[in-house]
Amino acid sequence: MTAPFFSRGLLLLVGLCCLLPITKTKYEDLYEDPNIDPFQCRKVALTISNISITLFKEMAQLSVNGNILFSPIRVIAAISMLSLGAKGNESKRILEILRLNKTGLPEAEIHKCFRYLLRAIHQPEQLSPLKSGSGVFIHQDLTPVDKFVEGVKNLYHSDIVSINFTDCRRAKTQINNYMMTKSNKEIKNIVKNLENDTYMAVVNYIIWNAKINSDFGCRSVKQKDYHLEQGMTIKVPMIHIVDLNHLFRVEDLSSTVLVFTLLASNFTTYFIIPDIGQMQKVEQRLTYPHFRRMRRQSNLRMVNLETPELSLSETHDVESMMNLLGITYVFNNDANSSAVMNDTLQKSFKMVSKVKLTIDDKGSKPGRSTCFKNDGSVDVGYVQFNRPFLIFIKDPTNDVPLFLGRVVNPKH
């Protein structure tokens, strides 16, 4: 009988929430690397987007009325990184299930593309409000294979840290302190528990504090009703702005779509609000080509918008997410099946994924008390995101999907 994913010898903890900083020189090198073809890497980005919709739909069926939020690039990159530690057909099998083999690129080129694509979330702090990174913690008595170490560091921008997992309580404290330091104290106690037979932990994190602003200085925030499921209503801060944005209908999804770029970033944000009672049908019908058609359908116009401030933090069992994709096994019990360690591993493992996203107007320039007044000569659209909606955020430079989810409670 084969062992669960990545042999029983690992704790793979993927928490999504902050940045391992890189220098500006390294950042620029990601664009100038002659060994990376950006056009080919867009195929990888497209594949990540497609598989992320599949994953989201599976998650939506399991959680019909709750919030869903994850980072597709972070989750898929973490799984792809682990394929570096598989030998023989197991590595290919992971890439096949992720559909990355459909890109037509050799396995080595796929990993290089992740190095290129991840640069969207590894920008220097002064250039982007988005922070992200990862760390791999390995038991000090184990010997990582050089190929795995080099791939983790050079292709997936991850630190490798030797740690003593024999003392679980101390190991947990070390990992939590490491994450707290890297996140400038924004992340505390990300690791809740460790199994006694843990020999490896992978921590992946992403956090984004986005801002909404109006070029016309027309903005206000008021407490208003937000309608939850089953007739429940709560009061939340609602941002009211009048600005130029893309607003249109997507009839085959029975939804209204707002597309805009948040302040201090070039990331494209899709807010999709289904007609009342249509959320589950929209989730079932949704495909990534819908977003590609939305881009062509975009209609820039003056929009009178009301949207809630968002403060979202979600944690997922990544092993369960992989099971939803059909990834159950990677390594057999025998030592020759693992290219990660030169030791036999027969330990249990656990995977956790955490992502945090806030969207508000704090730090923006104060709005004016008087606002845009329409004399009838301007077509002004009006939309309220005062009930559950879908959110999709991507880096338009290479179409990397950064966040995907369903917002039921904006303050959950």
UniProtKB/TrEMBL annotation:
InterPro entries: Serpin_CS (IPR023795), Serpin_dom (IPR023796), Serpin_fam (IPR000215), Serpin_sf (IPR036186), Serpin_sf_1 (IPR042178), Serpin_sf_2 (IPR042185)
Signal peptide: 1-25
Keywords: Signal
Pfam family, one: Serpin
GO molecular-function terms, A-Z: serine-type endopeptidase inhibitor activity
Domain Serpin: 53-410
Family: Belongs to the serpin family.
Name of the molecule in the record: RCG21015, isoform CRA_a
UniProt source species: Rattus norvegicus
